[in-house]
Design goal:
Pfam families: UPF0020. With 470 residues, this protein is α/β, with parallel strands linked by helices. It contains 18 helices and ten strands. The two termini are 26 Å apart.
Length: 470
């Protein structure tokens, strides 16, 4: 990138040391984005970038309310930060993320003066995003915490919560104590505060379970002969801790940590906006709670989103314990919830009708190659592409004239065949006459996408950031 790299490093250093107003940083980031787009327009070549180095003053670890709850494959906050700061001069401060996930874009939008509009098929994602972006009254949270602890000691029974394979994941006594704790939380009158304590409770259900904390989907933690003595000793130590864990004590530790995160965020950004839900399906965005009024055409000036990647992550399974405990989806409802999610793992087997899919011929031929090796994977991939094209239809509809869409995605392999998701999305947006202004390539370092989801999938090690303009 030549001079651009030098400018970026100079910008980063300046941003750290300068005492001038924040709008100077916004201006420099706007100029940086403009330089990138000029370079891309000139060379028509994707630009390699390291967002961590570009925005190196932003901590990648625990900051604000970003780490209030675990969630798989979180978007790097630096990406959202960069594009939001580079668009701070927008007259209408709205940003849409139709795949909000853990709420990374929503929180960054909220603290930078944008109203976040969010959608997601996973109800846990919507709950988490709301909690992350809500400027809670700290005194109220502390009072409720004390009341929950008081009731927890007094209550002896609670309604049974239906969990997938409860004996596999919990000691019977732990499950009983968790049910009593949930009973006390359900009695919280204020819905916003109840949501906060439910998210804390959700974190606890993972922490005191026998699920391996290093794996996003629930996998029983146990020693194995192939592991080294050191690793097995560490696992046994973890298992012993789980068996002796004090439920209310661990809950209060999580609550206190999350209250500290809210305090930090409130102190730095007291006027941030709480995210507004605009859908449960990225293909159908609305403006009212029951979903009967579509979001107006040409109404959103900025879209920043990262959709599920084909063969990358089992989002519903990864959050299955939380979905069960919070009664957002019963064990029997998990499959139907997955079926509503784009990028699903399972699909009812039906005849493969490629010629009727309206997909570009290059992708029809690719699916035929996949079908020769595994017809089910071909069906799942076809469904993913069709649904992503519908997502692009809806995003294109609601994006305002001159508005921009930032799309973060990855390419992968299915049965040894390369699936160019980036090219497919580019073709879809160009059908709606959105112009491709920039392609950035960044290496994935810690998004939980490095592990193969199944034996027919591949490792995803690079992310593509596409910038379109209407």
């Amino acid at each position: 990138m030549g001079d651009l790299n030098s400018n970026l490093m100079a910008l980063s250093s300046y941003a750290l040391d300068s005492t001038k107003k924040e709008d100077l940083l916004d201006q420099y980031l706007q100029e940086t984005l403009s330089q990138m787009m000029d370079e891309y327009h000139k060379n028509q070549t994707p630009i390699d970038i390291d967002f961590r180095k570009l925005i190196h003053w932003l901590r990648a670890g625990d900051q604000l309310t970003h780490q209030i709850h675990p969630y798989p494959a979180k978007l790097l906050p630096h990406i959202a930060y960069f594009f939001l700061k580079a668009h701070k001069n927008l007259t209408q401060k709205l940003v849409l993320d139709p795949f909000c996930g853990s709420g990374t874009v929503a929180l960054e939008a909220s603290i930078h003066g944008f109203l976040p509009l969010v959608a997601d098929a996973n109800p846990l994602a919507l709950l988490l995003t709301k909690v992350k972006t809500t400027p809670y009254c700290i005194e109220k949270l502390i009072r409720i915490k004390e009341k929950i602890s008081y009731k927890y000691i007094r209550y002896k029974v609670a309604p049974t919560i239906d969990i997938v394979n409860p004996d596999l994941w919990y000691l019977p006594e732990h499950k009983k104590r968790l049910e009593i704790l949930l009973r006390t939380i359900e009695e919280v009158v204020d819905q916003e505060e109840k949501a906060f304590f439910k998210i804390c409770f959700s974190s606890l259900t993972k922490k005191v379970s026998f699920a391996d904390p290093a794996i996003s989907v629930p996998v029983r933690l146990k020693t194995k002969e192939k592991f080294s003595p050191t690793i097995n000793a560490r696992i046994n130590k973890r298992l012993d801790w789980i068996k002796s864990a004090n439920i209310i004590q661990e809950f209060n530790i999580i609550v206190d940590a999350n209250i500290e995160r809210v305090i930090e965020t409130n102190n730095k950004y007291p006027n941030r906006f709480t995210a507004k839900q605009v859908g449960i399906d990225a293909r159908s965005l609305f403006t009212n709670p029951n979903g009967s009024i579509p979001m107006p055409d040409n109404s959103v000036p900025l879209v920043i989103t990262s959709p599920p990647y084909g063969s990358a992550q089992k989002y519903v399974r990864a959050s299955s314990l939380s979905l069960n405990w919070l009664e957002l989806a019963s064990p029997k409802e998990l499959r139907s919830l997955e079926e509503k999610s784009i990028g699903r793992e399972h699909l009812k087997k039906t005849p493969l009708c490629l010629e009727e899919s309206n997909l570009p011929q290059d992708y029809v031929q690719l699916l035929k190659k996949i079908a020769l090796k595994n017809e089910v994977r071909a069906q799942i991939t076809q469904k993913y592409l069709i649904e992503m094209s519908q997502v692009v239809d809806e995003i294109s509809r609601v994006t305002a004239p001159n508005g921009r869409v930032i799309f973060v995605l990855g390419n992968n392999q299915v049965c040894g065949e390369t699936l160019r998701n980036d090219r497919f999305i580019i073709e879809c947006f160009q059908k709606h006459h959105l112009k491709l202004k920039l392609i950035l390539i960044d290496d994935i370092k810690s998004r939980g996408l490095m592990t193969k989801r199944n034996r027919t999938a591949s490792v995803i090690s690079r992310e593509t950031v596409l910038v379109f303009e209407k």
